[in-house]
Write a structure and sequence with these properties.
Blueprint lengths: L8 E4 L5 H12 L3 E6 L3 H13 L4 E5 L5 H15 L4 E4 L14 H29 L3 E6 L12 H21 L4 E8 L8 H4 L2 H9 L9 H12 L10 E4 L11
Parallel strand pairs: 1-2, 1-4, 2-3, 4-5, 5-6, 6-7
Helix pairs in contact: 1-2, 1-8, 3-4, 4-5
The protein binds beta-D-glucopyranose.
Length: 257
Amino acid sequence: MSGRLEGKVAIVTGSSSGIGQAIAMRFAQEGADIVIDYRSHSEGANDTKTAVEKAGRRAVVVQADVSKVADTANLVEQAYAQLGGCHVLVNNAGIEKGSDFWEVTEEDYDAVLDVNLKGAFFLTQAFVRRLHDLKQPGRVLNVSSVHEDMVFPHFDTYAASKGAMRMLMRNLAVELGPLGITVNNIAPGAIETPINAKMMQNKAELDPLLANIPLGRMGKSDEVAALAAFLASDDAAYITGSTYVIDGGLMRNYHEQ
Ligand code: BGC
């Protein structure tokens, strides 16, 4: 594989499983050293590390809860201390909780917004502060969702967090452009990952979802990782302020029976 990320260091949050793990592995195959972040799934983080090292790259595993600002600062600190810099940030860590709107608790609201939005906000801030001091360019990629734009009834906290992530990305693209820092979103649809594990085993939920996807299947983490590698590479140097939807056509699929 060509080394489009040769000499780069990337932080990938939530890289102990799913899309984050696939991005970490793909980035390593393209030549990047990786800070692997996990909150509770240390085994998965170690699997990612093994894969990164197999690709001949360095990997540092850091336990961090991105909803804690001090933990986000430490992720950036570890990238500089152990890998000598940080050029690419992937805000991938995310959670969702489904319930009727009238049942949402303050605790659930805080849990979802704190990981999905506050985490991305303050980790990006820590990442940008260093680049600003060093007068260096950089790349920020947020893994949002088709639900940054498309409704997701019964997942109101999740949709609110992803919609906010879209506006954060647009704002930062304008504010950080003059620093040479690009900011883009990847908006996956239904991907085969742990966040969807329960749904994938429930035919009554899975079948209507598949019927809504023109390509007729769920996506794979590797397919999202390929898009992330492009957006992190020099091939995407002139791209900022954009959302890249990767959903098998789900978002565009309205039809009458
Ligand atoms: C959500 C999944 C959902 C998919 C398509 C994703 O953002 O995490 O739970 O299946 O969007 O609706």
